[in-house]
């Protein structure tokens, strides 16, 4: 009697036409985010990253990377080898950030980071070198240049005083100066999606999109600078951090939200914000499944109408359970037992079906959003056919048994004129950050050479005038 369960799941089943419509709505939102006067009100922020190129394979040298996005931060030494076309992690170290430091002063936090970086350089005999540094700082920032980034607000349990509204590169440099012990070269600020794209871009130079589907979801892509209306008078391309998790924050997705999505949003720490992300990412998928199972149980269709304490508790049905349950019925039985439920075979099968329905919707919504990006790149370049690569990261994409194949199949349907290769990123926030720095150095070097050769031409002209 599966038809009894179908009415609960039907609202999660999105037709190809609906997905086309979602993709078209996001297309409009990208334009609003890129507009000079519309961007500050746009739900999809479309932030310029000041990363102006992807790797061309000539990058080389030694780099440092700092990765701060949670309760730990990492320090890495990365070597880019041109001959072998490889990005190698030479050494890395993880440093803890104590709870009280997450709530202390900004100066304390950055002194701690500078000290840990110094210890790392000391123990790997790198103190005598002045190495360029890529800084992945996974908090909402407004980037003003590749090496200038203003923290908008702390998230994820951090609340250090004196940092919001300030340039985090400056704060880092000042803390390193206070140690008086070592120097670093140029700094590049890196958003984690950009790092994801760049870490794949060395081995595949057609990688022009980065996408993360993990605890949260986001994507970046290479846009024509002439379309980025906030940046005047430049040509070429720039990587745009879409912040697509905010899609729907203006109500544009209300018609496809289910009662369960509305409930997840209402009980979250940020109601009304990141509506698209809440339908897709690992932080919320388990909770959506839990709410559906609770409703079916209340209606006496599951578990003999008995809700166990665990099933009745918010957050207790973890997103990783979805991956495990869809990997096999035996896993499902084990997890249901652990959740204190009195289950039969029908119950276990229905739970599998609920998990499949909700993870599939997530994959299809991601596909619709990705289709918007690849179609935009294709139209920007006036191509009949685009061949491109997407660098992907995140636990949902990596760990779920069928997510990546469903996403890929759906994108082919929604963007038929695009041929897309998917690469799983290798350490975007570490190696990717080093790669962003390496490309920024290459571009700076190239523009210096151009200026020098222009300078020589000027001299020639002056000499001729003198004759």
Automatic annotation (TrEMBL):
EC code(s) of this entry: 2.7.1.-
Gene Ontology molecular function: any one: ATP binding
SUPFAM superfamilies per record: Actin-like ATPase domain
One GO-annotated biological process of the protein: glucose metabolic process
Annotated organism of origin: Neolamprologus brichardi
Biased composition (Acidic residues): 452-467
Reaction(s) the record says it catalyses: D-glucose + ATP = D-glucose 6-phosphate + ADP + H(+); a D-hexose + ATP = a D-hexose 6-phosphate + ADP + H(+)
Annotated spans, Disordered: 447-467
InterPro entries noted in UniProt: ATPase_NBD (IPR043129), Hexokinase (IPR001312), Hexokinase_BS (IPR019807), Hexokinase_C (IPR022673), Hexokinase_N (IPR022672)
Ranges where the Hexokinase C-terminal domain occurs: 208-439
Family: Belongs to the hexokinase family.
UniProt keyword terms in alphabetical order: ATP-binding, Glycolysis, Kinase, Nucleotide-binding, Transferase
Annotated protein name in UniProt: Phosphotransferase
Pathway entry: Carbohydrate metabolism; hexose metabolism; Carbohydrate degradation; glycolysis; D-glyceraldehyde 3-phosphate and glycerone phosphate from D-glucose: step 1/4
PANTHER family to which the protein is assigned, alphabetical: HEXOKINASE, PHOSPHOTRANSFERASE
Enzyme class: transferase
One GO CC term, this protein: cytosol
Hexokinase N-terminal domain span: 6-202
């Amino acid at each position: 009697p599966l038809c009894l369960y179908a009415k609960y799941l039907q609202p999660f089943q999105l037709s190809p036409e609906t997905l086309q419509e979602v993709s078209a709505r996001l297309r409009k939102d990208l334009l609003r985010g890129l507009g000079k006067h519309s961007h500050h009100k746009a739900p999809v922020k479309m932030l310029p990253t000041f990363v102006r190129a992807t790797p061309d394979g000539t990058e080389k040298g030694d780099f440092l990377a700092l990765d701060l996005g949670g309760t730990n931060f990492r320090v890495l030494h990365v070597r880019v080898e041109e001959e072998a076309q490889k990005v190698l992690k030479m050494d890395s170290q993880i440093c803890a950030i104590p709870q009280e430091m997450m709530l202390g002063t900004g100066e304390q936090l950055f002194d701690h980071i500078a000290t840990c970086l110094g210890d790392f350089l000391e123990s790997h005999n790198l103190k005598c070198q002045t190495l360029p540094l890529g800084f992945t700082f996974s908090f909402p920032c407004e980037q003003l240049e590749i090496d200038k980034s203003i923290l908008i607000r702390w998230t994820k349990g951090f609340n250090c005083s004196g940092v919001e509204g300030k340039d985090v590169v400056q704060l880092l440099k000042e803390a390193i100066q206070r140690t008086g012990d070592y120097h670093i070269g140029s700094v590049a600020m890196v958003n984690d999606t950009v790092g994801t794209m760049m870490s794949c871009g060395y081995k595949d130079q057609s990688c022009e999109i980065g996408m993360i589907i993990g605890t949260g979801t986001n994507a970046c892509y290479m846009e024509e600078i002439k379309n980025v209306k906030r940046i005047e008078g430049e040509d070429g391309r720039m990587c745009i951090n879409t912040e697509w998790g905010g899609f729907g924050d203006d109500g544009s997705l209300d018609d496809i939200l289910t009662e369960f999505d509305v409930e997840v949003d209402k009980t979250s720490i940020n109601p009304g914000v990141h509506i698209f992300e809440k339908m897709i990412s690992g932080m919320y998928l388990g909770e959506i499944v839990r709410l559906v199972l609770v409703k079916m149980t209340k209606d006496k269709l599951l578990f003999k109408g008995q809700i166990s304490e665990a099933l009745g508790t918010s957050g207790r049905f973890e997103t990783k359970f979805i991956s495990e349950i869809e990997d096999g019925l035996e896993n499902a039985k084990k997890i249901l037992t652990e959740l204190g439920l009195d289950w039969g075979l029908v119950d276990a099968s229905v739970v599998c079906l609920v998990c499949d329905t909700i993870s599939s919707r997530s994959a299809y919504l991601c596909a619709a959003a990705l289709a918007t990006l690849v179609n935009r790149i294709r139209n920007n370049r006036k191509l009949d056919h685009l061949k491109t690569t997407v660098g992907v990261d995140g636990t949902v994409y990596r760990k779920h048994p069928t997510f990546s194949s469903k996403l890929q199949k759906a994108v082919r349907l929604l963007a038929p004129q695009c041929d897309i290769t998917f690469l799983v990123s290798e350490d975007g926030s570490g190696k990717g950050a080093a790669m962003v720095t390496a490309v920024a150095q290459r571009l700076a070097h190239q523009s210096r050479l151009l200026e020098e050769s222009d300078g020589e031409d000027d001299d020639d002209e002056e000499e001729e005038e003198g004759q």
